[in-house]
Design goal:
120 residues; mainly beta; three-stranded antiparallel beta sheet; 0% helix; globular
Length: 120
């Protein structure tokens, strides 16, 4: 299955997001911009902020299934690195909380493979 975009995460049973480090300043970015050196980001982090998308977003750019189901989105703080935005999967909505530990996973979205964070 093709990834949602090339260069966002590694393949395999223990995926990692691919960030980039600026060769001059050492600053990290995600996704890896041109001219930066690709680095694997930490696989585990903590929910920094979150929300639940309870209505179907406008199309385009939303390209999800026609039969909409609410989903959680969040910012995940990766220790010693940065904060990334991602879908949150496998968490009951009423259990989501700032500081909750989570781990990077991959999941199918439509006909593509994407990344998300699930319970650690």
């Amino acid at each position: 299955m093709d990834p949602i975009a090339q260069g966002l995460f590694t393949d395999g049973p223990d995926p990692a997001l691919l960030g980039g480090r600026c060769p001059e300043s050492g600053r990290l970015a995600f996704p890896c911009p041109p001219g930066f050196v690709a680095v694997e980001l930490p696989r585990e982090g903590r929910i920094w902020s979150w929300t639940v998308q309870r209505f179907r977003p406008k199309s385009p750019p939303y390209a999800g299934p026609e039969a909409f189901e609410p989903f959680a989105l969040g910012y995940v703080e990766l220790p010693g690195a940065l904060i990334v935005e991602a879908r949150l999967t496998g968490f009951p909505f009423d259990r989501l909380a700032v500081g909750l530990p989570c781990r990077l996973v991959t999941e199918v979205l439509g006909d593509r493979l994407t990344y998300a964070f699930g319970p650690a």
